[in-house]
Amino acid sequence: MISDAKQERKTVLIVEDEDNLLAPLTYSVEREGFRVVTATDGGEGLELAREESPSLVILDIMLPTMDGIQVCRILRSESDVPILMLTAKGEELDKVLGLEMGADDYMTKPFSMRELIARVKAMLRRAELSPSPTDGRDDGVITSNDLRIDVEARKVSLGGDSIKLKPKEFDLLALLAGHPGKAFTRDDILDSIWGGKDNIDRRTVDVHVRWIRQKLGEADGAPRRIITIRGHGYRFEG
Ligand code: CA
After folding, report:
1. What is the whole-number distance in angstroms between the Cα of residue 62 and the centre of ligand 1?
2. What is the mean pLDDT of the segment spanning 41-51?
């Protein structure tokens, strides 16, 4: 029975050369039900990432043989696996580089394991929700009647007229429209768009939906593309 459960578990790869951090990291992530594979240098980490196809990678920056930045850059060129970078205090430059290299998030040491697990879960949920190329998209463009969302260029137009959306409004519309008919809870949306930050109120989602509706001319009883699901959240209807 254990082997069955094992197959369903998601794998998290942890690349960290400090034993006194690797051990508690491994313990904390395993305790959440994930399968953990570990590497203590960059080259080994990259190899394991290719062999194990993990669902998420936790990647330290300062590593022997190949640093985390390099590993991140190579990994990102090969897959969309979510990457959480670990940085030491004062590595501001490295932080920026890490994100430019395609890391999805970073944490500065020392951090709490609880916060790390929250980030890991949010990243995994975000990865599951992010639009896949087959979801009503063509070359990074989502269309629904006269609405056109160019995800790559971050442009929205309605009947040929360009609509100006703020970044979060755009992200929210692209998320919903990228999964037409799928019901999202407010928590799903918060995790996906606001990165699971605990201090953001669920009503933020409602406010952004209201703004999007106004900009799409769907205020005041006009037919809506974003449908409110009472007691649940929202869904997009094409
Ligand atoms: Ca290190």
Report:
1. 4
2. 96
What is the amino acid identity at position 26?
T
Whole-number Å distance, alpha carbon 64 to ligand 1 midpoint, is 8
Centroid of ligand 1 to alpha carbon of 212 (angstroms) = 44
DSSP notation for 142-173: EEETTEEEETTTTEEEETTEEE---HHHHHHH
CA terminus-to-terminus distance, the chain: 43
Q: Are 238 and 179 in contact (CB under 8 A)?
A: no
DSSP secondary structure letter of residue 134: T
At 4-18, the pLDDT tens digits run: 444 468 999 999 999
CA dihedral 65, 70, 71, 75 (to 10 degrees): -150
Sheet strands side by side (includes 141-144): 137-138, 141-144, 147-150, 155-158, 161-163
* Ligand 1 centre distance from Cα of residue 179 (Å): 39
List CB-based neighbours of ion ligand 1 within 5 Å: 17, 60, 62
Ligand 1 centroid – CA 198 distance (Å): 28
User: 195 near 171, Cβ under 8 Å?
Assistant: no
Report pLDDT for 31: 95
